[in-house]
Write a structure and sequence with these properties.
244 residues; 9-stranded mixed sheet; 9 strands; 37% helix
């Protein structure tokens, strides 16, 4: 279970060998959303987990997780060196079975980390930045090579894999800006290789106001059940999500 009650109820559990894609436009909160899920997974299962963040250093990723776990504002803790050390110390004491990486840029390196550490959960933020070292005729072929390899790894190693993904900016030119599966069409075989596709949508993101921070989680694909939309409250200051 992911620790977010409305979503857990809709998905009815996650099976082994499952790839979950979380798609959203930049700034919608998908990394914060994933961090909330990650802490829930570590608190309840604490199985070997690999978190590949290709957008920031692993030190900053760890501090964001520590801040979220403490329930404080990241911007405030980042200003205070003593508070940073205290916050990181509290995270270290939890003894999470978590491996952070900021330099795993190929799917071959990913496989090596999975094998070396007996990984069961994998998080990649975000998938479009991961490449294959194999020569391919085009960038899209290279990207599909990555996706196909991750699909094979998920099946062979019985992994649960979370792939964070950018989506087409076309959503911003529609009257209804909620993402659709077609917004992944420029992402190669991502939709086909995913068992579950979740899109994140906040109306306040487009209104440029903070009065309404309800997050819609659109279950656009669910190989094991039904599609639906569920809702959470989002606190952008503390970067956490609250059951709605």
């Amino acid at each position: 279970m992911l620790g977010l009650k409305p979503l857990d109820k809709a998905l009815n559990g996650i099976n082994e060998s499952t790839i979950i894609t979380i798609g959203a436009r930049p700034g919608m909160g998908k990394s914060n959303f994933m961090n909330n899920i990650l802490l829930n997974l570590m608190d309840h299962y604490n199985v070997p987990t690999l978190y590949v963040n290709l957008e920031m250093s692993k030190e900053k990723s760890a501090l964001r997780l520590a801040t979220l776990s403490k329930g404080e504002k990241f911007s405030e803790i980042q200003k205070n060196e003593n508070l940073m050390k205290e916050t990181m110390s509290e995270l270290t004491k939890k003894n999470y079975n978590l491996y952070l990486s900021d330099d795993c840029f190929t799917v071959e390196e990913l496989e090596q980390l999975i094998n070396e550490n007996g990984i069961k959960f994998v998080i990649i933020d975000y998938i479009q930045l991961l490449k294959s070292s194999q020569k391919s005729p085009s960038s899209i072929d290279n990207y599909n090579e990555v996706l196909d390899k991750i699909r094979a790894l998920a099946n062979q190693k019985k992994l649960i894999v979370f792939l964070l993904s950018q989506i087409s900016r076309n959503v911003e030119h529609r009257e209804n800006s909620r993402p659709l599966l077609m917004d992944l069409k420029n992402s190669g075989n991502l939709e086909n290789n995913s068992d579950i596709v979740l899109f994140l949508y906040r109306k306040s993101y487009y209104l440029r106001e903070n009065k309404n921070n309800i997050l819609e989680i659109i279950i656009a694909k669910n190989r094991y059940g039904y599609t639906d939309t569920v809702y959470l409250d989002y606190d952008p200051q503390k970067e956490n999500f609250i059951n709605y």
